[in-house]
Amino acid sequence: MPKIKHIALSTQDVDKTAKFYIDVFGMKEIAKLDGPGARGYYLSDGDINLAILNFKNDAVAGVERGAGWSGIHHIGFQVESLEAIAERLKSAGSVPRDDINQALGVGHGTHRTANVEVKYVGPDGVTVDVSESGWVGTSPLA
Fold first, then answer.
1. Both 85 and 67 in a single domain?
2. Do 3 and 49 reside in the same domain of the chain?
3. Which DSSP symbol is given to 58?
4. pLDDT < 70: residue spans in the chain
5. Which one of 47, 59, 81, 122 is separated from 87 by 20 to 30 angstroms, measured CA to CA?
6. Statement to judge: residues 68 and 99 lie in one domain
7. C-alpha closest to that of 30 among 55, 5, 2
């Protein structure tokens, strides 16, 4: 069965965005790119490739969004400790999405057996889910 191995984020500040995912989630820089269509980084956690891209023109970005658009809906990270990641997120300037957490009945102090436990704001307004229990259909942390 196919497995998710790549997520791409379109951003206006590739350095800031890459630094966030490296500093907070420990992703490793695999490559830095500056081609005719985009500049940015390829990061990896060993299982997923995360492209951080700034598109140089509307055609390569997709005309429906254009080169100035930033985002993806959300990205989920399974973590060993919600408390430890909360400190790292805070240090990186990230805050909990209390509005969404309340609407979903999730957040600090609640526990779920699968899927998101707390949502935060990442760079460019991308929502970042964190969970100790992981997501349905995914392997546990090694």
1. no
2. yes
3. H
4. 1-2, 109-115, 136
5. 47
6. no
7. 5
